[in-house]
């Protein structure tokens, strides 16, 4: 399942269902599906952890990423824990910031949307 993340939130909660307990340092690798650039975030200690899921909470680590589709890999000192897909978006994704309407000959109207 693709995770949907709003990067404009002050605090981003990352929930994962894992097959084993965490061991050591946990890294969150993010690979852009567009240009294959990689960002690695060292996750803080899990905010909540039990036999079913683990919760991490991060702030501001995703702000510099562009809106789009990404592949993620969660790994610790024993190897990969989970991998999957996520969509990162800002609050104004898809909202038009400027609208220009042109009327050239009176019959046809053109609307140009610039995002």
Characterise this structure.
By secondary structure, the protein is an all-beta fold. The chain is built from no helices and ten strands. The strands form three sheets. It has a five-stranded mixed β-sheet with strand order 1-8-7-3-4, with no helix packed on it. Strands 2-6-5 form a three-stranded antiparallel β-sheet, with no helix packed on it. The protein has a two-stranded antiparallel ribbon with strand order 9-10. The protein is globular. The two termini are 28 Å apart. The model has no long low-confidence stretch (mean pLDDT 84).
Quick summary:
The protein has 115 residues and is mainly β.
Descriptive keywords:
single chain, 115 residues, mainly beta, 51% strand
């Amino acid at each position: 399942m693709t995770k949907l993340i709003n990067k404009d939130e002050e605090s981003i909660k990352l929930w994962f269902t894992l097959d084993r307990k965490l061991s050591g340092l946990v890294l969150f690798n993010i690979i852009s599906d567009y240009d294959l650039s990689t960002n690695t975030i060292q996750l803080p200690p899990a905010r909540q952890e039990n036999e079913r899921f683990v919760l991490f909470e991060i702030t501001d680590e995703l702000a510099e990423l562009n809106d789009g589709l990404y592949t993620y890999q969660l790994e610790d000192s024993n190897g990969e824990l989970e991998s999957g897909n996520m969509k990162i978006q800002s609050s104004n994704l898809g909202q038009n910031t400027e609208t220009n309407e042109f009327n050239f000959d009176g019959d046809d109207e053109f609307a140009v949307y610039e995002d």
